[in-house]
Amino acid sequence: MQRRGALFGVPGGSGSRKMAAGDIGELLVPHMPTIRVPRSGDRVYKNECAFSYDSPNSEGGLYVCMNTFLAFGREHVERHFRKTGQSVYMHLKRHVREKVRGASGGALPKRRNSKMFLDLDTDDDLNSDDYEYEDEAKLVIFPDHYEIALPNIEELPALVTIACDAVLSSKSPYRKQDPDTWENELPVSKYANNLTQLDNGVRIPPSGWKCARCDLRENLWLNLTDGSVLCGKWFFDSSGGNGHALEHYRDTGYPLAVKLGTITPDGADVYSFQEEEAVLDPHLAKHLAHFGIDMLHMHGTENGLQDNDIKPRVSEWEVIQETGTKLKPMYGPGYTGLKNLGNSCYLSSVMQAIFSIPEFQRAYVGNLPRIFDYSPLDPTQDFNTQMTKLGHGLLSGQYSKPPVKSELIEQVMKEEHKPQQNGISPRMFKAFVSKSHPEFSSNRQQDAQEFFLHLVNLVERNRIGSENPSDVFRFLVEERIQCCQTRKVRYTERVDYLMQLPVAMEAATNKDELIAYELTRREAESNRRPLPELVRAKIPFSACLQAFSEPENGSWALFQRAAQTWSGDVLTSRFASFPEYLVVQIKKFTFGLDWVPKKFDVSIDMPDLLDINHLRARGLQPGEEELPDISPPIVIPDDSKDYPVCSVASDIDESSVMQLAEMGFPLEACRKAVYFTGNMGAEVAFNWIVVHMEEPDFAEPLTMPGYGGAASAGASVFGATGLDNQPPEETVAIITSMGFHRNQAIQALRATNSNLERALDWIFSHPEFEEDSDFVIEMENNANANIVSEAKPEGPRVKDGSGMYELFAFISHMGTSTMSGHYVCHIKKEGRWVIYNDHKVCASERPPKDLGYMYFYRRIPS
C-alpha cells in the first residue's frame, strides 16, 4: 500500500464535493457487499475498455467496476451496469495541459509530476517538455451517476479506501507482454564494474558480422571480454542461432555479451551468462570503446533495427516499406493502424487483411449490438467479443482522425489539449487469441501464415450460429495417388485454407547476374569489405504455378497385395473446389543443409488477375483403374501382450534409420518413416518425416494397425463401429469439461482409439464436423444393442465457383527467417493501394507486389 499515502494523503481533491463523512458512508452502505479488494491473480483492467479502445486518455475517460475490475468506456458502462447490477465504478481520466511558461517564454524546469498515478503510455506526438499530465480518479455510483471525488480518505469507509488504493496501484494484466516493462526491471550485472577486457587488438567492423563458429549473420553477440562474435540460441530475443555464444562462455567463463545491432546512444541488450538473465552494464560505452565501437554515434532505425542490421539486406527493407518515398498518411474508417506490442506485426498484418473482407466485417462489426449485448460476464475472454471490438476499432474511424489544424491548436491549448488517438493497441486481443499457445503467447516474432491458420481455427470453433466467415477461405483439394508399379490410382479429398506455392529457383531469369553477385559477395566477405548491392532472383510466376501442378513423389509407399511388395507412388494435387477468397503463400522459408532456417530472397511477378481454372480436379478418368483400399501387412509380435509395439527390426533398413537419427529426429519417428516408405531410402523417408512431424504421435513407437481388437489405421469415425468402440465415459467427461460438446468428444475419441491427447488435436483439426451430428446420436442410441450404423455425413461447406481472381491484399516479410524481421501489409482500397506498417497507414506509391509472402485474391464473378 505504498501508493496510499501519495494518493490519499492530501486532504480534499480539486473538484471534490464536500459533504459529511456520514452522508458518504450512508450512500455507499447498500453497495458495500459488491465492493472488492483485488486479490492476487485478479486482473485489473484500468487502461483499456473491454468493448472498445477507450482509455483514461479518451474524452469520456474509463470506468473500472469495483467488483469485477473490468473497464468500460462511457458508451459501454451502462450495458455492464444493466447486465450485472454492479453500481460502483472508479472513473479514471488523464488530462493533458500545456505547461506554464516562464518569464523568458520557455517552459518551467521539469520536475517530478506527483499528479500522475496511472500506469499509462504518454502521447508520443506531444513533446513532454511542453505539456504536463494530471490524473483524476473518482467513484461513480450508478444509476444516478453520483460522484465521490478522490482522494477522500477521511470520509470513505476503510474498505473502500483500501480497494481504491489497490486498484490504482495494480499492475497491468499485460505486463508480461510489454517488452518496455522488462527494461525497467533489469538488474545491474555484478560483473560490470570490474569486467576484465583482454588487450588482444580486436576491432569490430561496422558491418559484415558473422558468427566465428558458423555462417550465421543474425542474432550475433559480442563477448565483452575477448571480442568474440558468436550466435545466440534460437529462442532468445526472437532470433535463430546455434548457441555458440553460450558454448564460448562455458569454455572461457567470460560472463557478459552485448547483442550486435541493438547498440544505440541509450544502451543495448546485454546478457550475463553467469547470472542467466538480461542485465544492465553502466560502463557499456567504455566496454564497447575497447573494441572500437563508439556507442554515442550508433543510431537505430524504424522497427527497432539498426543500420548495421539492414545493410546486407537494405533493398528488401527499403522497397517493402517504401522508404525514401513521401507517403501521404490516410485517416478515417478502414485506415486505422495497429500499434506494435513488440514483434506483433505478424498479427497486425493478418488482421488488417482479414477485416478488409466484407464477410468478416458483416459477421462481427455488422452484428456488434447483438454480440456485445449477449457477451459473457467477462468479455475479455470471449473470442467473438474481442474480434468485434478489433473490427470496430479498425473500421469505425474513431481511432484514426487527422491532426487538428494549426490555428485550432492555439485555441485548444489555451484550456486543455485533447489528443486524437491514432492507431489502436491490440493487447487484449493478442492476449486472448494467443493464450495457451506456446509461440503466439511469447514476444518472439512468428510466421504470419501460421497465425492465419490459427485464427481460422478460432473462427471455426467460435462461429456465431450458422454464420462462419472463414467459409470464404475453405476449399477441397483432390489428391491423386498413382502406384509406380501397377499404374493404378486412388483419389482422396482434404480440406485446406491456403494455396502453398513453391519457389521455382531453377527457373530464375537472371542466373548469370546471381552467379556474379555470389562470387563478388564471397570475395567481399573474405576481404572484410562492404557487401555489393543485393541481386535478387527473378522468378516467373508461371514457373511457380507449374511447379505446384506437377506430379511429385509421394511420402507414402503403397503395398501391393498380389506381389506382397511395396511400391512408390506419385502424388498430384488439384482443386476440387475454388474458394471465394484464395490465399496464396509463397514458400520462401526452408532449411539449409546445416538445418539453419533460411529464406529465398526472390522477386516473383505476381499477377493482379489470376486464372487457375486449369487446376480444376477431374476425378477418376476413363481407363484409370482404382487401387484397392488394402492395409499393409500385419506383423504379429511374438508375445501378444506386448502389442501394439511391433518388433520389426529385421524388416526395417537400419542404415536409413541411423541417417535420419543423426539429423536429430527421434529414433522411433525414423523407424516409422523408413517402415511406411517401404525401405526406399533415407531421402524418401525424410519426406515422410517432413509431412508428419507435426502429428501428436510423431515420436511414439511404431504400432501395427488392424491387429487384435485395435482399430484400423484407416478407420474413421464414420466407419463400422460397435459396442467395443464406445469411448470410456471418464475420457468423454474430461473433454466435455473443457467446453466441447459430448457428441464432438465421442466423434474425436472414436477416430483416435480413445487417445485423449490425439482426440483433442482431432477436434481442433476437424472444425467442419457438426457438433449435433445425427450419426453420433444414432450410435449412442444403438450402442447397447451393438448395432453397426453406416454414416453419411455432409461434407465440409465450401463456396465453389470460378477460378478467376483479382489481387486485393498482400503481406510482406523483411528479414532472413520467420523468427525475426518485420511484416507489413498492403491493401487495395477505393481503387488505390494503401500500406499498413504497424500504426502508420499511408497511401502506397510503389506497392512491392513482387516481394510478398502471402497474397489475398477475391473471386471475380463470372
Automatic annotation (TrEMBL):
GO biological process, one term: autophagy
Keywords attached to this entry: Autophagy, Cytoplasm, Hydrolase, Isopeptide bond, Metal-binding, Phosphoprotein, Protease, Repeat, Thiol protease, Ubl conjugation, Ubl conjugation pathway, Zinc, Zinc-finger
Entry-linked InterPro entries: Papain-like_cys_pep_sf, Peptidase_C19_UCH, Ub_carboxyl-term_hydrolase, UBA, UBA-like_sf, Ubiquitinyl_hydrolase, UBP13_Znf-UBP_var, USP
Annotated USP domain residues: 336-860
GO cellular component: cytoplasm
Domain UBA: 651-692, 726-766
Active site residues according to the UniProt entry: C345, H822
Gene3D superfamilies in the record: Cysteine proteinases (3.90.70.10), DNA helicase RuvA subunit, C-terminal domain (1.10.8.10), Zinc/RING finger domain, C3HC4 (zinc finger) (3.30.40.10)
Gene Ontology terms for molecular function: cysteine-type deubiquitinase activity; zinc ion binding
Reaction(s) the record says it catalyses: Thiol-dependent hydrolysis of ester, thioester, amide, peptide and isopeptide bonds formed by the C-terminal Gly of ubiquitin (a 76-residue protein attached to proteins as an intracellular targeting signal)
Protein name: Ubiquitin carboxyl-terminal hydrolase
Species name: Bos mutus
